[in-house]
Amino acid sequence: MLRWIDVLKFAKYSNPEPREREEKTDEEWQQKLTPEQYNVMRQKGTESPYRNAYCRSYEPGIYTCVGCGTLLFNATEKYHAISGWPSFTQPSTKGAIKYMFDDSHNMQRIEVQCNTCDSHLGHVFNDGPVPHGLRYCINSASIQRVDLENDHE
């Protein structure tokens, strides 16, 4: 399980190696993504709080990157953070997420990106629940929930 100190070390020194890389041109991203997804994932935008697909959704399954399909989060790690965006306590694997210092908007935060395709997902904060204290605040536009129940039929 990752802790805040791990996140800081990844952001400062070196991120985990991704299992694979996916690269697309800007034109290919614009063709693949909706305008809102493109704004969030490629231009580091933020969707409206509370009015997004997964803010109040707690169904079982997994969450993957819209851009490349990489498994990012398990629904078992999702919790009600009252932040306006889907919140998770841990990524699916250590290598799923890439961490970057973000000083935009006169704030000091740590941006999280898909480690496979470098798509902006949101930010991670150290105010999450115990025992690890992490809150991954993620834009719904950058993830899609996959229902594992349907995969077994």
Automatic annotation (TrEMBL):
User: Can you quote a single GO CC term?
Assistant: cytoplasm
Q: Which cofactor does it need?
A: Zn(2+)
Please provide the record's keywords in A-Z order.
Metal-binding, Oxidoreductase, Zinc
Record-listed E.C. numbers: 1.8.4.12
- Mind telling me which Pfam families this protein's record contains? SelR
| One annotated GO molecular function | peptide-methionine (R)-S-oxide reductase activity
Q: What class of enzyme is it?
A: oxidoreductase
Reactions catalysed according to its record: L-methionyl-[protein] + [thioredoxin]-disulfide + H2O = L-methionyl-(R)-S-oxide-[protein] + [thioredoxin]-dithiol
Outline the extent of the MsrB domain: 26-148
Q: Extract one GO BP annotation from the record.
A: protein repair
- The answer to keyword Cytoplasm applying to this record is no
State the source organism's domain of life.
Bacteria
> Which PROSITE patterns does the UniProt entry name for this protein?
MSRB
Identify the PANTHER family for this entry: METHIONINE SULFOXIDE REDUCTASE, METHIONINE-R-SULFOXIDE REDUCTASE B1
Can you tell me which family this protein belongs to?
Belongs to the MsrB Met sulfoxide reductase family.
According to UniProt, the name of this protein is peptide-methionine (R)-S-oxide reductase
Q: What is the lineage of its organism?
A: Bacteria, Pseudomonadati, Bacteroidota, Cytophagia, Cytophagales
